[in-house]
């Protein structure tokens, strides 16, 4: 794995780093929220998955009774939403 990017995140007083596999196109984003006090077992915030087209993926998820738990968010070059896992997390 190698660091693809790393940047400060003003909104959370933290940092975000994207790491990727050197021999595949798999990526992992790690976020640190500054000033947040974590307790054991409470560190996982979310896991992200990339899809080619979110607008096409959402109806497929809804057909499997997997609903977003937030609105679709957009940035200059990305679109994302959050869904809960089968246990509601």
Number of H/I helices: 1
Instruction: Categorize the overall geometry.
Output: globular
**Structural class determined from secondary elements:** alpha+beta
Tell me the major beta sheet. 3 strands, antiparallel
Tell me the count of domains.
2
What would you report as the Rg, rounded to the nearest angstrom?
A: 15 Å
Give start-end ranges of low-pLDDT stretches: none
Oligomer designation: single chain
| C-alpha termini separation | 28 Å
Instruction: Report the helical percentage.
Output: 10-25%
Structural commentary:
- This protein has 89 residues and is an alpha+beta fold.
- It has 2 domains: 1-34; 46-89, no CATH class.
- Helix content is 11%, strand content 28%.
- The protein contains 1 helix and 5 strands.
- The protein has one helix at 54-63, and strands at residues 2-9, 14-20, 27-32, 73-74, 79-80.
- The strands form 2 sheets. Strands 1-2-3 form a 3-stranded antiparallel beta sheet, with no helix packed on it. It has a two-stranded antiparallel sheet with strand order 4-5.
- It is globular, with a radius of gyration of 15 Å.
What is the element layout, followed by pairings?
Layout: E1 2-9, E2 14-20, E3 27-32, H1 54-63, E4 73-74, E5 79-80
Antiparallel strand pairs: 1-2, 2-3, 4-5
């Amino acid at each position: 794995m190698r660091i693809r990017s790393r940047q400060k995140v003003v909104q959370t007083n933290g940092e975000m780093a994207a790491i990727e596999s050197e021999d595949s196109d798999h990526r992992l984003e790690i976020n640190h929220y500054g000033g947040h006090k974590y307790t054991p077992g409470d560190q996982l915030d979310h896991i992200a998955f990339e899809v080619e087209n979110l607008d096409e993926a959402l109806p497929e998820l809804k057909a499997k009774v997997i609903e977003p738990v937030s609105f679709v968010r957009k940035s200059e070059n990305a679109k994302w939403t959050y869904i809960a896992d089968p246990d509601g997390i």
